[in-house]
Amino acid sequence: MTGRAAASIEAVFREERGLLLAALVRRFGDLDLAEEVTSEAIEAALVHWPADGVPPKPGAWLMTTARRKAVDRLRRDQAYAARLAVLQVEAERAPAPPSATGGDLPDERLQLFFTCAHPALPAEDRTALTLRCLAGLTTPEVARAFLVPSATMGKRIVRAKNRIRTLRIPFRVPDADELPGRLPGVLQVVYSIFTEGYAASSGPDLQRLDLAEEAIRLARILRRLLPGEREVAGLLALMLLVHARRDARTGSDGDLVLLDDQDRGRWDRAMIEEGAALVEVALRAGPPGLYGVQAAIAALHDEAPDVASTDWPQIVALYDVLRGLAPSPVVELNRAVAVAMRDGPAAGLSLLDALADEPRLREYSPFPAARGDLLSRLGRHSEAAEAYGEALALAGTEPEREHLRRRLAEIASP
User: What is the pTM for the complete model shown?
Assistant: First the structure.
């Protein structure tokens, strides 16, 4: 099999796996069974397709194969089949909510989103289950994302599945009354995946591009399935506008390159244009949402030719809106940095110093790093060195640590 053929088959698997898994969960009502036969169908395809070629309708081929394997499994295990039959009868008795897709798109994947991100599951379990089921990562890959042993992650995923089974969490899209309360949890799970990809919590690399791209792929699915939800558009816009800078965020040696110093010619302009168009959708015809406002901030950064000509007053104004929507110490930190760019480093430093006793910033490396930058710009080098030292002790990735070491060396030898 040629490399091109292998890539083609892999692309089919990535596109079809989520559809297949969701349809099987819908059909049989059991996530474990659906995962097992999905994997077996893909393994069968890996045997037949290289020799016979990818079929004209690969999704139908995979579905037929998976269903046969599921039926074989249920024939072998009568007790398991009986339990699934009870669950299926209960599901059929429950009233079906109206379709949330607003069109003819199948909504099985959307149902799986809401099942994996159900509020009855702990937050870490929701993200892990989404990575495993919807992004298609293996359990060891999910474990690496969470920086825990594979066995620990395996137990966490099993616990989440058992909780779904025990609580009989319905495999459905919430009805119109439930959707506003449930959708933010789904979006938060996807954004958490992206955040770990954009800024890895630890390790030798600054970014986990695989996770960032999976999060964008999941958001695209949500966007297709919920085209009328402005915050879905906002989340996708935010991730595209931030991910557009990926190639410029590190140098040839893998070192961190701050926004001020990035080569903007390396930014992905097609991705920026797509994200900017989605910002307009997210902010149109209604009050601004959390992701739409953040996307608007990212768009102002991406559309500016350089840092000096960035519309800092508008960015500060957007942070004022954001702090009203979702007040947090991180929002205040980012707003203080924007104020420093608008009004000067002393103004920003005053705001940062007011956050010094905030517990949630004590272990957050960007906070002392931002103080170090403003102190350095004010010529207060000994205080800047102390702040950079605090940031260095908290930094999670080697590129961050190397950047901070360089800053310390620059201060020591002005």
Answer: 0.79
